[in-house]
Amino acid sequence: MIPTLSKIRIYPIKSLDPVELTSVKIGIRSLSGDRRYAMLNQYGSYINGKATGLVSQLQTTFDKTLEHVTFKKRGTDDKAIFNFNSETAQIESWLSNFFSTKVSLIKNEEGRLMDIPDESAATVIAYETLQHLAATLTDSIDTLRLRFRANLEFSNAPPYWEERLANYDSEKGISFRVGDVNMIGISLRARCNVPPRNPFTGETDKTFIKRMIESRERNIPAWSHIEKLGSPYHLSVDAFIPDSEMGKEIQIGDPIQII
């Protein structure tokens, strides 16, 4: 049984909604187009789900070229469409009104807007992991996808199979291949205060972390070493992509193999 890539998601604007793709090229230590933009407040800090639940209320959709974005507040009909290349000032004005604070939109295509630049180019998770958590947390799989925001999802594996890709005992990661693209699994992703937020309203479920920890404690597979991390509140694996892979492409259906 070989796990295969079943979903690809990039997040053109850090902290906002994803775009689902059938294939993606490898950029500079990132998936091309992923976290290409980010929103900063007047103090130069990220406007993200850690800072405010308002990001969950902002619905964003993109055209196929990822050059145009549509913004609207969830549950309303009012929307605004902008071109990233020529309407930066208009975007910043609209976002400033939405967040009630001065917003600057910054751009970087070299992986510098990732959560852990240089170390984590993509996050990896198994569909079966989400399926298992959905059952134990009484949440939908699609909602969990929005809570945990992984880039690469694969199927045809046991729950938590992705933890085979996490390294615990040395500085050397776990080498694996997606199609013909080489990646290195580094570690499990420690989760923050974003997953407990409802991804549509921004409201915090104060029971979420406790329930997730209890679910993980009851279901630790033999290949996992999550106990070494001090808390089961970890999910998905951070993967580094070497510069040698830039320009290659991965696509749905590619096998994932440890090498």
Strand order, largest beta sheet: 2-1-10-9-13-12-11-15
CATH top level of the largest domain is: Mainly Beta
Tell me what portion of residues adopts beta-strand conformation.
25-35%
Cα radius of gyration in angstroms: 18 Å
Please give a structural write-up.
By secondary structure, the chain is an alpha+beta fold. The protein folds into 2 domains: 4-30 and 113-258, M1 Pyruvate Kinase, Domain 3, CATH 2.40.33; 37-107, no CATH class. It has helices spanning 54-57, 88-99, 127-137, 141-148, 208-218; strands at residues 4-10, 19-21, 23-25, 37-40, 58-62, 68-73, 80-83, 104-107, 122-126, 152-155, 174-178, 181-190, 234-240, 249-251, 256-258. Strand 5 and strand 6 form a beta hairpin.
